[in-house]
Amino acid sequence: MRIYQESIQLREVRRGFHLITGEIMKRMTEITEIKAGICQVFIQHTSASLTINENADPTVRKDFEMFFNKTVRENDPDYQHDYEGSDDMPAHLKASILGSSVMIPIRNGKLALGTWQGIYLCEHRDRGGSRNLIVTVWGA
């Protein structure tokens, strides 16, 4: 059994859904050493999240952003937590809906994602800053 763990800092990106699969693979080259295992990606923030979805057509990511902005609206007068701006509480809610980690099987030294799947960084703030991930890989 091998276990690898890396802290990855992602550069600041605009609000939206961004593919980060390539960046994870570039930083976690140890994945190629695992025949069968698991990769967990965890984000250390409460106003951004992770998910797995379509990696080919960028309109899917735009539609994700549109859906979440319609579903969890900003400037709701009922929000009490508004110290960091009108996008803060909605960002926390969106992050809770999507989640803070994803787990992907590793098979023959590669992430066993489906043909059209990729890992998204879901940035829910207008200016969220850089984002920190902890990526853990284990297997044999």
From TrEMBL:
InterPro entries: UPF0047_YjbQ-like, YjbQ-like_sf
SUPFAM superfamilies: YjbQ-like
Gene3D superfamilies xref list: YjbQ-like
Lineage: superkingdom: Bacteria
Similarity-based family: Belongs to the UPF0047 family.
NCBIfam families according to UniProt: TIGR00149_YjbQ
Protein name: Secondary thiamine-phosphate synthase enzyme
Protein's organism: Dyadobacter koreensis
Taxon lineage: Bacteria, Pseudomonadati, Bacteroidota, Cytophagia, Cytophagales
